[in-house]
Amino acid sequence: MKIAVVGTGYVGLVSGTCFAETGIDVTCVDIDTKKIENLKKGILPIYEPGLEELVERNSKKNRLHFSTSLKESIQGCEVVFIAVGTPPGENGSADLKYVLGVATEIGKYMNQYTVIVTKSTVPVGTSIKVKKAVNDALLARNEKIAFDIASNPEFLKEGAAIDDFLKPDRIVVGTESEKAAETMNKLYKPFLLNGHPIYFMDIPSAEMTKYAANAMLATKISFMNDVANLCDIMGADVNMVRKGIGSDARIGTKFIYPGIGYGGSCFPKDVKALIKTAAENGYTMRILNAVEDVNEAQKSVMFDKITKHFGGNLKGKKFGMWGLSFKPKTDDMREAPSLVLIEKIKNAGGEIIAYDPVAAEEAHKIVKDTIAYASDEYNAIDGVDALILVTEWPEFRSPDFEILTQKMKQKIIFDGRNIFDAKELRKLGFTYYGIGVK
Questions:
Q1: Residue 336's pLDDT band (boundaries 50, 70, 90)?
Q2: CA 314 to chain CA centroid, nearest Å
Q3: Dist CA 221 CA 268 (whole Å)
Q4: DSSP 379
Q5: Residue 106 near residue 69 (C-beta atoms within 8 A)
Q6: 42 half-sphere exposure, CB direction, 13 A CA radius
Q7: CATH T-level topology, domain 299-433
Q8: 114's torsion region: left (phi>0), alpha (psi -120 to 50) or beta?
Q9: Is 18 a catalytic residue?
């Protein structure tokens, strides 16, 4: 089977590579010449554990190809995925110009029946616009070539995307014809052999499923952050509360860890887009409006704790920051809580020296040299007044606190992810602040 994936960002590259891993002939297409040339050399534009090895292996086996020519790449393909970005507009709506631009290009160059699949996260109703763009392009060519539109949302977690794709909890496919469903079933057959469920549905339901899933997870995070803030006020311990409610099978243990807010490429963008879609159709998503408000406020909670501890004066204070990316095992800095902390501390006159295992280069593109960058976690705390834990990378979970005692000017830790034991640290003489913990 031969397919093409248009867009070599996070979703497109992971999807294309994992399809190739199952034996499918895949061409990943992008207009960025430099990115494609780098991919041909094995240089990836993103960090994702295990992805580099898969790209190298499948490229050598001639199952994975990279090209800037959409016209050449889609010839003979049974399925073409659209996996380009849908950045949020100023009003929160998803910008579909790249999706529709690709749809038009496919219509210009397709030469046989093709299932055109939106893999990008798109608002409900996008499939209608995609179909129109393809039809308009075919009409301009004076051609009548049969095609079908499908929706196949992704559910990839950054840092675990390979496993998520190859061992999915579920596969969701929205189609409008039996022929399209048969083609997509054929494509995903290698996954079905291992018992992974596939759910076929209408296209609007598939489009809504992606937004609803991310909105629900974002809601759980904001809810627990609200609870954690109340725990701070009432003297309760959110870690105990989390265990108490997480044992309820109706609630579960996932996504109920409080912290300093969610970030990344999905939750912020998708929550905003769903709110906007509802508003455009005369409905107010009251819960999601609150979810968004809580999350934005949560990104300032740790700064408020820092300011309070230092009596409102951060001038001349030096802070070590562990972690920059919005979550571990990725270099993604989109909507990262660290960016809010950095801006607030710098504006208050504080200095920051940061360390992140993989995201320093991406962070530098955004904050430039307004902060210093350390070569490891211990160099990031040399002479600092306090340590701020922002991203819960595994290597930060069990540091040598004796080294911290020797290097830090003041033994103060602000733990934005509650990964340290407050009682243990206080026994060692540290002043400890978490989120909703005693």
A1: very high
A2: 32
A3: 12
A4: G
A5: no
A6: 9
A7: Rossmann fold (3.40.50)
A8: beta
A9: no
